[in-house]
Design brief:
Rossmann fold, Helicase, Ruva Protein, domain 3, Zinc Finger, Delta Prime, domain 3, five-stranded parallel sheet, 7 strands, disordered N terminus
Length: about 450
Amino acid sequence: MDLFDHASQKEQAVLAPLAERMRPTSLSEYLGQEHLTGEGRFLRRALESDQVPSLILWGPPGTGKTTLAQLIARSTGASFETMSAVLAGVKDIRETVARAQDRWKLNRQRTLLFIDEIHRFNKSQQDALLPHVEKGTVTLIGATTENPSFEVNAALLSRCRVITLRGLEQEELIAVMRHAVADPRGLGGKVTVDDAALEFIADAAGGDARKALTALEAAAAYGRTAVDRKVAQEALQQKMLLYDKGGEEHYNVVSAFIKSMRGSDVDAALYWMTRMLEAGEDPVFIFRRMVIFASEDVGNADPRALGVAVDALRAFQLMGLPEGTLPLTQAVTYLALAPKSNAVIAAYAAVREAVTKEGALPVPMHLRNAPTKLMKSLGYGGGYKYPHNFEGNYVPEDYLPEALRSRCFYTPSRNGFEAELSERYEAIQQQLAARRGEREPGEDG
């Protein structure tokens, strides 16, 4: 490094955002993850014994995943290589591995490879990484806001330990900001920030230390020498909602929305719906979830629910925003208050299990198509009873393969319209049972 490079780095350090300047340089400065770094906890013991395995760091934004990876590298004396899964490809992985192999051969120095947003690696990229993690050529630390169970290959996941980072509590965020106010790397005591302002910013940050420090820096620039709650509010303009459309909190809010409708809590359902909209969620995504809900959780207890959800989606597509929030709200209130039944999804699951277990059972002869004389002579279609030729347009008949004729897959609930379907279903089952009782054993109708 020449003098110009050194001067450039010093200049960048001064101009860097407050959150970057205040990045902890030791575990003693690292706040908010005591369940991992506290005395006797997993990560501290791994560092003290110099036996850190490959890790997947899973947590919301701003909880210190990158910082933790850097601290691990510094503590273990490993060379720190970093790449973004958004930009890197298989070629980058191979080049990094080659450097790691040379580093070990020449200096016996290990390499810690930090991959940010590892959930964005596709299968081929993860497969390219797998053998080098398995051999220990690199110690992998992947960071993700997504559930790694869904986004990381099982083979790679089995060779890593997943550790979960949590959003910081209000007291922890306030401690982080107070440190930034006083530290020479931060505001250096040049700005006073009162407790009310710190509490407001911590509440607005929603557990994200990076957001808190960014907001603190904006408030300090706005207030110049002093920051109170009013200054903080004016600097931030509006409270920041914790909602990452591609992250874990996205699924948490969607889950709360669905469960509120399922639990018939219309007010909670409206709250979570609005949370998603105000945070910038695509309304069509919300409508899709509601269409699924109309079949999965309401079903035949109120067959109109599916039509309400689909019609609301069509109305939204005609209206757009902001008027489109009206059919959305109408549909949410209808679905939340509709009678509930999961009999539809339960029926499908039961049938699927039977199909998987029993395989392709033969179609009963009387149900088979008979387009040729030969097929008719073989008994195809023989004995089929046309329901419309009978009173009430119904005649008791067996339509399932013989091995499944005693099985009942659909169990209607006693809720809403499905109570009426339940009565019809039971009447049909009774007639079928009576018919089967009259037949000779082994008869195939």
